[in-house]
Amino acid sequence: MGISTSTVSNSMGVVNEAINVFATDAVAAVDTTFNFGFRPRKLEFINLTDRLTHEVFDGMTSGHMLKTIAAGTRTLETSGGPVINADNTVTVPAALMVASKSFVFVARG
């Protein structure tokens, strides 16, 4: 079995981190795009209300995510996850932007 590896380093040793805390209102959810000002290498999109965490790592197949539910069960979902776009923005699908919920979005680059 062959293993492909790659190493990613931060230029000049600078680590970027952004944390957004927000709540959605009762309006129907839509795809939402975030711009953190840097390319995220790891994302954690956390639904505080329902205790769900969706993690995405730069280089994962678009739409894939590691999902952790309240009970601690972790699964690799192959669709519907946040996407790191070519322009370094992040798009969260409407299905994750559930109405009337509290969220935390952590981006590290």
What's this, in brief?
With 109 residues, the chain is mainly beta.
Sheet/helix structural class = mainly beta
Low-pLDDT ranges: none
Number of strands: 9
- How many alpha or pi helices? 0
Q: Strand order of the main beta sheet, please?
A: 1-9-3-4-5-6
The dominant shape is: globular
Biggest sheet layout: 6 strands, antiparallel
Tell me the helix content: under 10%
Rg is 14 Å
User: Percent of residues in beta strands?
Assistant: 35-45%
The N- and C-terminal alpha carbons lie at a distance of 30 Å
- The overall pLDDT, averaged over residues, is 89
| Number of domain units | 1
What is the string of SSEs from the N terminus onward?
A: EEEEEEEEE
Your description of this structure?
- It is a single chain.
- The mean pLDDT is 89.
- It contains no helices and nine strands.
- It has strands spanning 17-23, 32-34, 42-47, 52-57, 65-68, 74-77, 83-84, 90-92, 102-108.
- Strands 1-9-3-4-5-6 form a six-stranded antiparallel β-sheet, with no helix packed on it.
- The termini are far apart.
- It has one domain.
- Helix content is 0%, strand content 39%.
- It has 109 residues and is mostly beta strands.
Task: Based on the model shown, name its key terms.
about 110 residues, mainly beta, globular, three-stranded antiparallel beta sheet
